[in-house]
């Protein structure tokens, strides 16, 4: 479910595997990793042992040499080679920026500087990635900007759609609290003056990709004109070594009722789904809106269910027995389905529809004849999804509120259960 591989000292270590292309392929899992600084690893520690089990054979450090010297580099080991390729030639201090600096335009402009200053190092990094038959990892300090820029170039050349590249960039948001805590620990408990420090809003990557294409026409043209590489040969090698066919068979889904100790998992699942939405311009959920307490409350007042495939979480949903905020006072004739969410790119196809059926079976078991739900009135794509599952639009609530913001309009949908 979670792209972040758990470490004690590393907060942004992720597998780029599983992302889809437009050709019926996906990035092969277990071959390409991105992370924050590997200089935090120490030999003879659980983190070190966990890192070595990944079978990584090449480490690319995108930091400045002075960063590697002052903050430490990954310990040497016979199992991998180490390359320091500093792609950023004009260093800047994000933590010291003033609150009025908009991260989208500011960071995308820095990314363009890197794209044009660091051509030699970027070309070498792409060659290493293309030619490596074994697992490889690249990193900078936080695993966000320099790392995110190289990840975007690789994924784009592999044929991964822009919205997925943007989504991958924003997943650093899940690591932001830990990255901030590390910064404060290194700086006597102070906080950065820039509120956007360690954040990864989707506007940064969206603006960078647009700027790169505006200047060069395409990622391939950038590779040819700025990097001086054979873009066709590079793309062919990358796709041959890093892509695999999308699976045609998937494990069966299983379900279990969530318990209070599952609340952190549910928060992370929802925040991941929120980032998926934002990368596609859907302003329905925001990361951090729902806390662990929310999900524990829903367990006490209704039901929360987790979905698994081969033991891995792939989705969740809430089931309420009353929903006056959207539907007003009603007799006890329905169950109300909320926060239907699946893991992006890793849940089996049709997981959402199967979770709906599971929720409907729970409602039927209570003797209630209706399943009801609502969706944001400005999200016609989601409305169409529910209608295709047998739900009918029965009204609109123009001023729904959950006590956490301004009222908003929702479309009300209902399904008569057999």
Sum this structure up briefly.
Helix content is 40%, strand content 19%. The protein contains 15 helices and 14 strands.
Give a quick set of tags describing it.
418 residues; alpha/beta; Protein-Tyrosine Phosphatase, Chain A; Aminopeptidase; 5-stranded mixed β-sheet; 15 helices
Plain-language structure description:
This protein is an alpha/beta fold. The chain has 2 domains: 14-245, Protein-Tyrosine Phosphatase, Chain A; 253-416, Gcn5-related N-acetyltransferase (GNAT) (Aminopeptidase), CATH 3.40.630. The chain contains 15 helices and 14 strands. It has helices spanning 46-53, 65-71, 103-117, 119-131, 145-158, 162-170, 176-186, 202-216, 219-225, 231-242, 263-279, 292-301, 324-327, 351-365, 380-388; strands at 14-15, 25-27, 32-35, 58-61, 81-84, 136-139, 243-245, 253-257, 303-309, 312-320, 334-342, 370-376, 392-400, 408-416. A 7-stranded mixed β-sheet has the order 8-9-10-11-12-14-13, sandwiched between helices. It has a 5-stranded mixed β-sheet with strand order 1-3-6-4-5, with helices on one face. α14 (351-365) links the parallel β11 (334-342) and β12 (370-376). α8 crosses α9 (219-225). The two termini are 33 Å apart. The relative contact order is 0.10. The model has no long low-confidence stretch (mean pLDDT 96).
